[in-house]
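Quick one: structure tokens for this chain, please?
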Amino acid sequence: MWFKFFVIFCFAISLQIVKSDNANSKVICYYDGSSFLKEGLGKVTVEDIEPALSFCTHLVYGYAGLKAENNKLVSLNEQLDLDTGKGYFRAVNTLKRKFPNLKVILSVGGDHDNENREKYLTILESSVGRTSFINSAYTILKSYTFDGLNLAWEFPKAKPKKIRSSIGSFFHKIKKTFTGDSVMDDKAEEHREEFTAFVREIKNALRHDGFELSLTVLPHTNASVYYDVPAIINNLDYVIVGEWDIQTPDRNPKEADLSAPIYQLSERQEGANVQTEVSYWLSQKAPASKLVIGIPAYGRAWKLTSDSGITGVPPLPADGPAPEGPQTKIAGLLSWPEICAKLPNPGNTNLKGEDAPLRKVNDPTKRFGPYAFRIPDDNGEHGIWVSYDDPDSAGNKGAYVKSKNLGGIAILDLSMDDFRGTCSGDKFPILRAAKYQL
């Protein structure tokens, strides 16, 4: 009897532990305020994202930038963000009245501050410059009642790599033995040490008010070069692992491939996937509970030609970005609802040309994500290949996070998810699918 009671007691405790762990998972939802400025289908207001916020623990609002003249954190669009304009800094924080458990975080950088990117390195070299940034950041957080700051710091990107077979990779490694890697930053080691000091200084300034400080590792930023993980991790509340946009038609216009796989793809160069990045941070003594996995609510699209073949199996030859969609209005970038509309459905079965449905290829392994394509017609036109996350693959990433006891998920971006519910009738299906797996 006592043994039976002991077993039941232990089982109940284990269930409570699992429940507690899952309850602590972060669901971080990005919202790019500039989507409010778009016209037509791309316009996304604060009111549009409200149905998502009951699923989110954090709302990351972007993006702020860095003013080179005085090293201050500033709005990248004052007419949108400040009280003298549309007041979106204040509007997103007003959401906490309806969602009192929501934390609203301001993100700086994020590959959106495109003017003089060198300033993100220059400021690190000056203690006076760092202090100016910290003081201005604190003032904005305090004035608009943000709950923290996210550093999506714009370090130099690694150069695009050509997709190689295993044989090609072998000879490339031999070549690197003699030539070394391409040096993107001659003072990378100094900037690494200075960024460590910068993070420590920011955290010290924010700690008294309980502001959070987090880091987003942007795609193609070499973490081993710029982040001294053991030295910075205790000053960060969480780290968003940016393994999306691994392949894009802008970086790799001639080769289409999967853009956000969880695991290493076969016959590819090592690295550039969620598992490799997570393993690196864990090896550097980062707690699993602080690692958050980014999930894109959009896809990357290439234009196919007659040289692309008919199988659609990646990697395959391509000819730059595919045409823009009606919502995103950016060549090579399609939101989830734009992709969903191109997949087979009763409304497009008999359409031809650029309106013909794509052929969807699922991922039964749950390791790499789906893709969809349409081979060019007899005139070599209307060919397209898209790598994306759908609700199923987003759910797979949520399951991966749970299985590895990681800190949570980050959806990029609410404006790219199906916020109108046009695809399946459910609003924000990418967010919902990933959240439910936690």
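The two ends are 35 Å apart (CA to CA).
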